[in-house]
Prior knowledge:
Number of domains: 3
Distance between the termini: 86 Å
Structural class: alpha+beta
Strand order of the largest sheet: 1-2-3-4-6-5
Shape: elongated
Helix content: 40-55%
CATH class of the largest domain: Mainly Alpha
Radius of gyration: 28 Å
CATH topology of the largest domain: Transferase(Phosphotransferase), domain 1
Amino acid sequence: MQPDHLGDYELLNPIGEGGMGIVWRAFDSKLRREVALKLLRPGVLGDQPTSAALSREARALAAVEHPAIVPIYELRLDEHRPYMIMRLMTGGTLTDRLRSGRLSVEQATRVVTRVAGALDALHARGMTHTDVKPSNILFDQESSAYLSDFGIARFASATQSYPPAAAAGVAEYMSPERIKGGKADPSWDIYGLAMVCFQALAGRPAFEGDDWEAVMYQQLNVIVPSLSDFSPEAGARVSAVLSRALAKDPSERFPTASSFAAALEAAADTPSHADPLPSPLIREHDPAVTKGRTAELSEFIRVTWAILGLGWLVTWAYSFAQSWQSGLETWAIGAGSGLAAVLISGVYVLVSYLFDQDWNFRTYTYLGTTLSLIYYPLWYYLVVR
């Protein structure tokens, strides 16, 4: 049974739960404010249960100052059960927001940029988060992203290596080298952040399975799918950036989290000084992508456009052949329709190029259909008839 109070804090209601503890909305009776209280589960700290060890870690984490790190106010040990007091974030988690749909490239880039800065600040102090995932990215009332739970991850890994396949339950965001076990490394966090970005843009994790072992197998042995397979509108450049950030070999990834974020910004053409994220963060008219549906539609549209383009070429050649045999008046009509076919073919090439870069999928489809409906009846009426 959970206590009603811990020290000076009244526990109001649970607002989150994870493998390492439960987060409560709590009331600070001394300062008369609401805070978040993370009550750690027994045994989380392994062989570091003393308040002296916790104090040393708390001082180290307090030295990591960054505007995208959730502030830790206090760390206590009550009846051999540690808990930490943090700023209460009222905007929910990234997990909450992804339930409503995926993010746009611009929105995902803003989140990645803020979190990447927090990770680099942590790495510069010789620490590693080791648990970057959507539920550890929180938002304030203005929809600014914050990195949370880095303190717990640091306490859990301060003096020992991770065994292979540790921390089951977050397999979707675990790098291959972390699954194999060893000393914590910043490359773990960069991979985890890239996996979070992939999920935010695709509407699903890069790897899915019936259990965490199946997902871990894919992390170790299967190349991460291209983002374009699930979100063509994100663009080929964004997909290429994520493919590099999710390379199996850590040496092939970006050297820092911020360099990954900078490459993502450049690919998305999103300025880092742009206006803050709107609230809510989710696009209102962008439904989540069903598995494989977008990729199938994309292939269908490309084939359709290829057929239409061939049809335009054939009708152009036919109109000039007819004109050559039928005299000047018909030649003029045929030349005019042929010129129209050339223009429409040019639009076809231009639209294809734009689509590959970041063209709206529905607009692309509607344009192709509309051009076909306009041109073919006109050509038939003026030339064939």
